Amino acid sequence: MKKYVRTIFEWGILIVIAWVLSFGIRTYILDTRIVPTGSMLPTIQLQDRLIFDKLFFRYDTLERGNIIMFTASEGSGEHDDLVKRIIGMPGETLEVRESKVWIDGQALAEPYLKDAPDYEYGPIEIPEDSYLVFGDNRNNSKDSHVWGFVPKENVEGRVLLRYWPLEQWGSLD
């Protein structure tokens, strides 16, 4: 009988340790998301599963083109974590016209787009410690052109890789 009690106790300890490790990793280091919308087509497909770096990106510089997970700004009407691409960096002047994004007067090359934007936006100067983010499916994405800037503190992680479907496994860069 003592042997069974000891085995149950040991299994209980292992389960608690596994749960604590899992909780800590998902809360502070890595997290996963299933993409529910087509706003990032063709780069990210509906129901793709992504792994996000929630820790190490904070010690690196976010760059134009990074795909990030963030909470939308207050007043945006969005309540879930969102996934979009950084297009505008702090201090830049951005404008969407002639079906292109213009940054400080230069057209941005965007080979990842589903379709060129069919709207005009700006010109607008991006505040320090904020980003302007757009979906790759520009004409079917609720993004910064609808609800504004993403403050740096709202960025929760940067996409590391797609892990599902398996045939699409790998980096999104």
TrEMBL record:
Main location: membrane
Keyword Transmembrane recorded: yes
Keyword tags: Hydrolase, Membrane, Protease, Transmembrane, Transmembrane helix
Residue intervals of the Peptidase S26 domain: 9-164
GO BP field: signal peptide processing
Subcellular localization(s) per the UniProt record: Cell membrane; Membrane
GO function terms (MF aspect): serine-type endopeptidase activity; signal peptidase activity
Cited InterPro entries: LexA/Signal_pep-like_sf, Pept_S26A_signal_pept_1, Pept_S26A_signal_pept_1_CS, Pept_S26A_signal_pept_1_Lys-AS, Peptidase_S26
Enzyme Commission code(s) on record: 3.4.21.89
Stated family: Belongs to the peptidase S26 family.
NCBIfam families (alphabetical): sigpep_I_bact (TIGR02227)
Name the record gives this protein: Signal peptidase I
Lineage: Bacteria, Bacillati, Bacillota, Clostridia, Eubacteriales
